[in-house]
Specification:
By secondary structure, the chain is α+β, with helices and mostly antiparallel strands. Helices cover 31% and strands 15% of the residues. The strands form 2 sheets. Strands 1-2-3-4 form a 4-stranded antiparallel sheet, sandwiched between helices. A 3-stranded antiparallel sheet has the order 5-6-7, with no helix packed on it. The longest helix is centred in the middle third of the chain and has 16 residues, at 129-144. It is elongated and about 60 Å long. The chain starts with 25 loop residues before the first strand and ends in a 13-residue tail after the last helix.
Length: 236
């Protein structure tokens, strides 16, 4: 019997944000506020005037690429913090012109548990927006990256097959190893999944190279579209 289609009122219905994208202590309620059965994102945009910058047909204007990235088809998602019951809505926007395509948070609504409680700059700094963005993009990138599995092995573009255990072994010389940067991406991804706070530093130790060398490998893997974009000022 086929599984029933998720309703739009289920916040993870479109896969843009799922519970595993959130840091510890935060959770994604299954329904929108008010027990709505529909995705209220368009209504929220209208109320906030978020779509003011997009020209209508009657204006006969074409928004710029940056306008399209920032305003068209954003989706608001409602989060709660388990300990403080802080309520936050974040606006997720696909950056269609980024290479590779990514998702950014382009709006935040912060609601303390008790209406009327003050909001301090410290509380706003503690919102894990960068971590949520990074988790979403790593998940979406992993879903798009092509890895052919044959007999429990990952088949690289050259036809070379590697197993899961090979991903945590020294990578060798980039001038001699086929698919070297594919292996860099896979090793970095495996370390990230394992929860390493600084995958590049761990790669440097595993491969017996300087940190700058490992970081250079990761940069080249990103340039080849094998890893999602990094974030400024963040390790790894």
């Amino acid at each position: 019997m086929p599984a029933s289609m998720p309703r739009p009122g289920d916040q993870s219905y479109d896969g843009l944000l799922v519970a595993d994208d959130l840091p510890d202590g935060w959770y994604l309620p299954s329904r929108f506020p008010g027990e709505r059965d529909d995705d209220a994102s368009e209504q929220i945009d209208r109320v906030l005037g978020y779509n003011d910058g997009v020209a209508t047909d009657s204006q006969q204007e074409t928004p710029s690429a940056s306008d399209e990235n920032e305003t068209i088809d954003g989706r608001w998602r409602y989060l709660e913090h388990e300990a403080t019951h802080t309520r936050v809505m974040i606006r997720l926007q696909r950056q269609l012109f980024a290479v590779p395509e990514e998702v950014r948070i382009t709006g935040v609504i912060y609601l303390p548990w008790r209406p009327g409680d003050p909001i301090t700059s410290q509380l706003l700094r503690e919102l894990p927006t960068a971590r949520i963005e990074a988790a979403i993009n790593k998940r979406l990138f992993a879903m798009k990256r092509t890895e052919t599995m044959t007999g429990g092995k990952i088949v690289l573009p050259s036809g070379r097959k590697v197993g899961e255990r090979d991903l945590l072994k020294p990578l060798g010389d980039p001038k001699k190893v086929p698919d070297f940067y594919e292996m860099v991406a896979l090793q970095h991804g495996r370390l990230t999944q394992r929860g390493e706070p600084n995958p590049s530093a761990t790669m440097a130790e595993m491969n017996g190279v300087a940190l700058s060398t490992a970081q250079g490998w990761v940069t080249k893997a990103r340039e080849r579209g094998l890893l999602p974009p990094g974030r400024r000022g963040r390790a790894g």
